[in-house]
From TrEMBL:
<dbReference type="Pfam" id="PF00107">
    <property type="entry name" value="ADH_zinc_N"/>
</dbReference>
<dbReference type="InterPro" id="IPR013154">
    <property type="entry name" value="ADH-like_N"/>
</dbReference>
<dbReference type="InterPro" id="IPR014188">
    <property type="entry name" value="Acrylyl-CoA_reductase_AcuI"/>
</dbReference>
<dbReference type="InterPro" id="IPR020843">
    <property type="entry name" value="ER"/>
</dbReference>
<protein>
    <submittedName>
        <fullName>Acrylyl-CoA reductase (NADPH)</fullName>
    </submittedName>
</protein>
<dbReference type="InterPro" id="IPR051397">
    <property type="entry name" value="Zn-ADH-like_protein"/>
</dbReference>
<dbReference type="InterPro" id="IPR036291">
    <property type="entry name" value="NAD(P)-bd_dom_sf"/>
</dbReference>
<dbReference type="InterPro" id="IPR011032">
    <property type="entry name" value="GroES-like_sf"/>
</dbReference>
<dbReference type="InterPro" id="IPR013149">
    <property type="entry name" value="ADH-like_C"/>
</dbReference>
<dbReference type="Pfam" id="PF08240">
    <property type="entry name" value="ADH_N"/>
</dbReference>
<feature type="domain" description="Enoyl reductase (ER)">
    <location>
        <begin position="15"/>
        <end position="325"/>
    </location>
</feature>
Length: 328
């Protein structure tokens, strides 16, 4: 029986265990497209799944990894044929559907996006779910009507994957970006990406006032909890915040004051089940709006056998920018 390399997660006596092993073709789940996976990436959710720090995985055995880029091997889906270059992220991969840290994946053709011509498979995974989520957040702020002339925008978790791409995108679009980080040593890195101002995350970590001094017209938050509450309290009249992460927690100790007294909008960004037209739009914009030089600057590469160790480092806040995983 044919097998392929994969990072498999199984139940253990206490929690879960992840290991690089051989996976049997016969255990692949249903799908109408089979892909030779060439590149993947490492996101915060991947770190949670690999370490078992949160109940991300909901079936066993599971192949970890929530996104991949590769080449179609077989397809019975009308939109795809052998040789097509594709990107896939979300849709429960690595959670309920076998994921991306493997030499082979079988998925539904309706989950796939064609790899933009200007991007390589490696580029797409340097962007990955984190960068795609950052772009969805930017699109939400644009849909709100936010423009650079409205004032500065804030990005939290600035040195992480979402934050790094968000800063690069927003600065290229002409926004004055305020970067919030707990890593003062990354100031030069953040300014190189395009941040105009750096603030310590402690400024946003205390209990939030119902309303505080107006500081920014909008923002992208990957932290959640009290950080998001403080962002909202400091957002200018009729501004907007796009919330896309929960690194500090799922709670939101805020009040209705920013919403009913300043007309602030809070946009929730879902990257997992996002409809296909919005996915395509996000990837089209990433192909044109993200500076390739900045993408290269924020990216480091690892092999499949380094993924498990790297997952723990992501959760510990020891990773800057993006990590691409070379599968084949």
């Amino acid at each position: 029986m044919a097998t392929f390399k994969a990072i498999r997660i199984d139940k253990a006596e206490k929690g879960t265990v992840a290991a690089l092993t051989q996976f049997d073709d016969a255990e692949l789940m249903d799908g109408d497209v089979t892909v030779a996976v060439e590149w993947s990436t490492l996101n915060y959710k991947d770190g949670l799944a690999l370490t078992g720090k949160a109940p991300v995985v909901r079936r066993f055995p599971m192949i970890a990894g929530i996104d991949f880029a590769g080449t179609v091997i077989e397809s019975s889906h009308p939109d795809w044929k052998a040789g097509d270059k594709v990107v896939c992220n979300g849709w429960g991969m690595g959670e309920t559907h076998l994921g991306a840290y493997a030499e082979k994946a079988r998925v539904k053709g309706d989950w796939l996006v064609r790899l933009p011509e200007s991007l390589s498979a490696r580029d797409a995974m340097a962007i990955g779910t984190a960068g795609y989520t950052a772009m969805l957040s930017v699109l939400a702020l644009e849909k709100h009507g936010l423009t650079p002339k409205d004032g500065p925008v804030v990005v939290t978790g600035a040195a992480g994957g979402v934050g790094s791409v968000a800063i690069a995108l927003l600065s290229k679009l002409g926004y004055q970006v305020i970067a919030s980080t707990g890593r003062a040593s990354e100031e030069a890195y953040l300014r190189q990406l395009g941040a105009a101002e750096i603030i310590d995350r402690n400024e946003l970590s205390g209990p939030a006032k119902p309303l505080a001094k107006e500081r920014w017209a909008g923002g992208i938050d990957s932290v959640g909890s009290t950080t998001l509450a403080n962002l909202l309290s400091m957002t200018k009249y009729r501004g907007a915040i796009a919330a896309c992460g929960l690194a500090a927690g799922m709670d939101l100790p805020s009040s209705v004051a920013p919403f009913i007294l300043r007309g602030v909008c809070l946009y929730g960004i879902d990257s997992v089940m996002c409809p296909l037209p919005e996915r395509k739009r996000a990837w089209e914009r990433l192909a044109t709006d993200l500076d390739p030089a900045k993408l290269a600057e924020i990216t480091q590469e690892i092999s499949l056998d380094q993924v498990i160790d790297a997952g723990a480092k992501v959760l510990a806040g020891q990773v800057r920018g993006r990590i691409v995983v070379k599968i084949t």
